[in-house]
Amino acid sequence: MGDLSERDVEDVLGGVQPPGRDDLAPVVELTTWLHVSREIEPPPAMRDDLFCQIEDGLRVYQRSSRRVPAHLRYRRTSTRRVRETLTGSGRPIVSVAAAAVLLVGVILAVRAGGPSREPSAFVSPAAQGVPSTAADTTTTTAPTTTSPPTSASDAGPTGGDSEQSTTTEGTRESPAPTDAQTGSGSSDDDQAPPTTQERSGERQADGTADSGEHRPGRGTEPQSDVTDDTEPWNLPLSGWDFDLSESPAAKALWDFLQAEERGEPRGLRDDPGGESDDESDESDDDDERNDRRSDVGHGERDGDEDGVTERPDADDAEQESGASD
Amino acid sequence: MLIHTRTQPAGATTVTVTRQHAPELSRLVSEARHGSIKAFDDIYRSLAGQVASYLRWHRATDPDGLTNDVFAQVHRNLPRFEGDEHGFRSWVFTIAHHRMIDDRRRANRQPQLQDELAVDEHMGLGDVEDDAFAVLAHDRVRDLLTVLSPDQRDVVLLRIIADLSVEEVARMLDKREGAIKALQHRALATLRRHLDRMAGAA
After folding, report:
1. Is B173 exposed, middle or buried, given 0-12, 13-18 or 19+ CB atoms closer than 10 A?
2. Whether the complex's predicted ipTM surpasses the cut of 0.90
3. What does DSSP assign to residue B14?
4. Which of A219, A317, B103, B174 shows the smallest number of beta carbons within 10 Å?
């Protein structure tokens, strides 16, 4: 086969017999038949899957050809935010930080704003310059309505009259405005706190003790004392309401009046301040406590220890004891 | 190219070739890439027969099915194709060649009666005498191709059926052009010797 040139090969493959090469005629016949078979071969029938692919694919292709470029394509805001969050872009971090700051701010506002709901109803003993004791603490937490400290032990429904006579002298605050704190009291409580005179007159009209716990008919909810008793120390001095229970002269006067009621001759002390008054108060409280134990539950005793007016309702007393804790 | 043949198995062959002005393949490809179903259908009509013939000469088990598979892949990858008419033809036959190799491997794993399956039902020319001559010629040519090595057969069929150049065949088979020329030269020499031997035996 060395006699076959490259041109002869190309001619044979093209179905053309090279000139002067009759010996290649059978091979040329073969290649010519291959050419013929290629041309006469009809295209096979198109299968359905191929036909469907062409139609569907071209439809998709036509849609995709009209598609807006990816970087210009609109995306929904929510999707974009989610993607930005996943990709760690700056905006969500700022939002989270802002949310965290807002949450902390709300918590602080709730904590600091609790006592400020009724700032005028509390008097801080620190503002009065009186040393604070346990009894004082509970006394100062008691809002505006005045009542004698001994009324806590006498605070039964029957003991209200004597207390009213003493409250006119403005000796101590009583927890009667607790109703105002809880918001469950009368409409008068929701308004500007009345003076002690007004409140005493109100109590006389009701015929009950000034303490809210003695007025179940008014729908009081003394459980609000539980939360409020722990917060009065940060309250500002209101300026219109004063806690006279811490005044030594007032205490002495109150003790004197109580002693008169009990028939115990007891004169006014020359030096009514200091711890002696507290001790006398405690002794009075003890006596009253012993009297009351037969009438009410142990929860009232806690209230007596705290110097808060007694509450006939055991549940209320429990809440009060929790507040004192 | 329209070919009218009068083949006589024992003697000479009269071949009349008339080239048709087929639609320019590059234009059809461009239109098909832009979503023209008609353009792709024209491409299929102009090339599917050649692909089927190429697969049939390679004794593929199902030339028609493989041809559909080839054009399905062509359709899927058409948006990514870049090139001219010759490049497109080379690309289509490259896919067909790979399909043929896969089919050959499958056939080797599952031996079948491939000779009986290769029915020349598409070789009919409409005339009974011509069909008879065609069948005889086809069987003869197919027997002649069996004397070639697989590489020689691939080169000859790609050069003739696919109408590819030496460069395109070399690129398709991942061989050098000199190797392709050597293969086609040896293939023709083998055929000549075999025909001379047959003629001497007759």
Report:
1. middle
2. no
3. E
4. B174
Domain boundaries of chain A, sorted by first residue: 6-40, 126-324
pLDDT in tens, A219-256: 444 444 444 455 555 555 555 555 666 677 888 888 88
Contact (CB, 8 A) for A16 and A28: yes
Residue A296 burial (CB count, 10 A): 19
Structural domains in chain B, CATH included, are 24-114 (1.10.1740.10), 143-202 (1.10.10.10)
Q: What digits encode the pLDDT tens for the residues B94-130?
A: 999 999 999 988 888 776 555 544 444 545 556 677 7
CB contact under 8 A, A65 and B181: no
Please name which of B67, B122, B158, B103 lies closest in space to residue A37, comparing C-alpha atoms: B122
Q: Cβ of A41 and B125 within 8 Å?
A: no
> Can you spell out the DSSP letters for A237-269?
P-SS---GGG-HHHHHHHHHHHHHHHT---PPP
Q: Are A151 and A264 in contact (CB under 8 A)?
A: no
Q: In DSSP terms, which residues pair with B14 in a beta bridge? A: B6
Does any CB of chain B come closer than 8 Å to the CB of residue A4? yes
Residue of A1, A30, A60 to mutate, interface with B, max B Cβ within 10 Å:
A30
Do residue A39 and residue B2 have CB atoms under 8 angstroms apart?
yes
